């Protein structure tokens, strides 16, 4: 039985998810931090295949299935056991990324991609999803400024693709207003960090009023 809290961070590339997640983690030492695709050995291996710049021949459905496979393994090996132990799990990306990137931006269809993911996740959905909203130009500019970050196959997509990713997220936001909370990610790191921490703390208090 799950009694932990599953929180996911979503948004276009360069929105600041990873930066804010690591700051939040410092304030919540009991939380387990992880990411997709990856987080455990088998899923990190799949991540390398998906994101390799060499794999330009990858079919969009293959890509969607590989993300779902990595998701399944990560969920079963790492997320589910942590939730069963009552932990707070903070995950950088989850199923909404597949719906926005593969379902909407790649054009496979949000419902189609949702259906293969239902097989992978068996109804294990986040309790809360924080969506970091940013203009794709601004997100990509942040990435370009940061020379240390690896450039992956999806970073090499054109601006139109990244604009569609954002549109995809907006559709998901309309579909799941209770679960997904939108945050304007164009502000300063400190500001976004505080807002994120407030959202998470209020969720944790709502679920466990004694906190
Ligand atoms: N609010 C912000 N303002 C300016 N730069 C930021 C902000 N948040 C993150 N960054 C920088 O932008 C780059 C991408 O951030 P990152 O956290 O990796 O984004 P994501 O995980 O969403 O792709 C990093 O160099 C990071 O330091
Ligand atoms: C989890 C997931 C990620 N992605 C993409 C989003 C990113 O471009 C890439 C993950 O690379 P990553 O370097 O982790 O990007 P970010 O720091 O922006 O989270 O994979 C999908 O297309 N579908 C998915 O289901």
TrEMBL record:
Residues the record lists as binding ATP: 11-18
Protein's job: Phosphorylation of dTMP to form dTDP in both de novo and salvage pathways of dTTP synthesis.
Gene Ontology MF terms in the entry: ATP binding; dTMP kinase activity
Annotated ranges, domain Thymidylate kinase-like: 9-195
Family to which the UniProt record says this protein belongs: Belongs to the thymidylate kinase family.
Taxonomic source organism: Neobacillus rhizophilus
Enzyme class (EC, first level): transferase
GO cellular component, one term: cytosol
Pfam families, alphabetized: Thymidylate_kin
GO biological process, one term: dUDP biosynthetic process
Protein name: Thymidylate kinase
Signal peptide: none
Nucleotide-binding listed as a keyword: yes
Chemical reaction(s) catalysed: dTMP + ATP = dTDP + ADP
EC number, UniProt record: 2.7.4.9
UniProtKB keywords: ATP-binding, Kinase, Nucleotide biosynthesis, Nucleotide-binding, Transferase
InterPro entries registered for this protein in UniProt: P-loop_NTPase, Thymidylate_kin-like_dom, Thymidylate_kin_CS, Thymidylate_kinase
UniProt xrefs under CDD domains: TMPK
């Amino acid at each position: 039985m799950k009694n932990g809290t599953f929180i996911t961070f979503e948004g276009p590339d360069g929105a600041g998810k990873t930066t804010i997640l690591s700051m939040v983690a410092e304030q919540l030492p009991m939380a387990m931090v992880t990411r997709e695709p990856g987080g455990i050995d088998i899923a990190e291996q799949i991540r390398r295949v998906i994101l390799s710049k060499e794999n330009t021949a990858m079919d969009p459905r293959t890509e969607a299935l590989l993300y779902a496979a990595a998701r399944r393994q990560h969920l079963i090996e790492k997320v589910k056991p942590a939730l069963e132990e009552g932990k707070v799990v903070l995950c950088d990306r989850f199923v909404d990324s597949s719906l926005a990137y593969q379902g909407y931006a790649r054009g496979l269809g949000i419902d189609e991609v949702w259906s293969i993911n239902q097989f992978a996740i068996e109804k294990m959905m986040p309790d809360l999803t924080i969506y970091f909203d940013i203009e794709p130009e601004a997100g990509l500019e942040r990435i370009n400024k940061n020379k240390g970050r690896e450039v992956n196959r999806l970073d090499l997509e054109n601006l139109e693709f990244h604009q569609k990713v954002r549109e995809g997220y907006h559709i998901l936001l309309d579909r799941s207003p209770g679960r997904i909370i939108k945050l304007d990610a164009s502000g300063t790191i400190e500001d976004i960090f505080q807002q994120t921490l407030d959202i998470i703390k209020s969720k944790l208090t709502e679920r466990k009023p004694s906190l």
